[in-house]
Design brief:
alpha/beta, 7-stranded mixed beta sheet, 6-stranded antiparallel beta sheet, 9 helices
Length: 313
């Protein structure tokens, strides 16, 4: 099948690779423009563009495809039978969605209608779901509301971060996408139960701030859901500290329940024990502002933190 592929981040790569491996023809890859990255803010291509260029696939990178007057003509010239969209990162207009004879299919990283939106993996972890999955649906101009062609489930591990779960879903979705295209003419799409929909809005950097007044399990889900982006963080006075990994920890006794949330109760080789709600949470690995990631024990060697200090205040 002749496919124009829309995608940008690393999570879209397994789908693109799987389509090529299955023998589909990709005459054009539509992706995000180069963005400044690193300390030098050097314009850098996204992972999908890098992959496409490395495999000789033509690319098209409109700044805003909805407002690009040449978008439809550029896509029509590629003569697609269908558009496949995986984490493209832009809202597509109706004339683009409906251009190919078979229109456009989207691979979404949740079991729709649950977690419609830009950050479904993060929100599923944050809200304590035990199960998620992937859904292939027909794209329309509404947010993730099109008819469903196929779906597949994936359990969420208590240790999953957004990064680890997203990688598994990307591989699961790639296989489902190839299978769906092979059976496309035999599938009867089913409408979504819109009344059961939940939302997964796009995350912002400030969403990563840790609320030490929450329960230890809620803090743990928050940390895992914000990893690798936008990162869970707290403050030691004015210094921003990214919390990379941690774990809920059994309470040490009455002192944990009476201390202000965020208070450092103890420090040691196993991490930094923090009063959290009426229980405790251990920071195991972190990244101080302007420095590399390290184990909490290594940070303690610098003498900046001790029992009685309060994080996040």
């Amino acid at each position: 099948m002749r496919i124009v592929f829309f995608g940008s981040p690393e999570a879209a790569l397994p789908a693109l690779e799987a389509l090529l491996g299955a023998g589909h023809e990709i005459p054009l890859v539509v992706t995000q423009p180069d963005r400044p990255a690193g300390r030098g803010r050097v314009p850098t291509p996204c992972p999908v563009k890098t992959y496409a260029l490395g495999h000789g696939l033509p690319t098209y990178e409109p700044e805003r495809i909805r407002k690009d007057p040449g978008a439809v003509d550029r896509l029509r010239a590629a003569r697609p039978e269908i558009h496949i969209v995986v984490a493209y990162g832009q809202i597509m207009p109706g004339p683009v969605i409906d251009l190919p004879p078979r229109r456009s299919l989207n691979l979404h990283f949740s079991l729709l209608p649950a977690y419609r939106g830009a950050s479904p993996v993060s929100w599923a972890i944050r809200r304590g779901e035990a199960l998620t999955g992937v859904t292939i649906f027909r794209l329309n101009e509404k947010m993730d509301e099109g008819d469903i062609f196929a779906s597949a489930e994936e359990p969420i591990s208590p240790l999953d971060t957004t990064g680890s779960l997203e990688r598994r879903l990307a591989v699961l979705g790639a296989g489902l996408l190839v299978d769906t295209l092979a059976r496309l003419d035999r599938i009867t799409p089913r409408p979504q139960a819109h009344e059961a929909a939940t939302l997964a809005p796009k995350l912002k950097k400030e969403d990563g701030r840790i609320d030490w007044g929450a329960s230890p399990s809620a803090v743990d889900r928050h940390v895992r859901s914000m990893t690798p982006w936008p990162s869970a963080f707290t403050f030691l006075e004015t210094e921003r500290i990214i919390v990379l990994t941690g774990r809920p920890t059994p309470s040490l006794g009455p002192s944990a329940t009476t201390a202000e949330p965020g208070t450092v109760l103890s420090t040691g080789r196993d991490g930094i024990l923090i009063a959290c709600g009426e229980e405790t949470y251990s920071i195991v690995r972190l990244q101080p502002e302007g420095r590399k990631a390290m184990d909490a024990a290594a940070w303690l060697a610098g003498g900046r933190i001790r029992a009685g200090l309060r994080l996040g205040a």
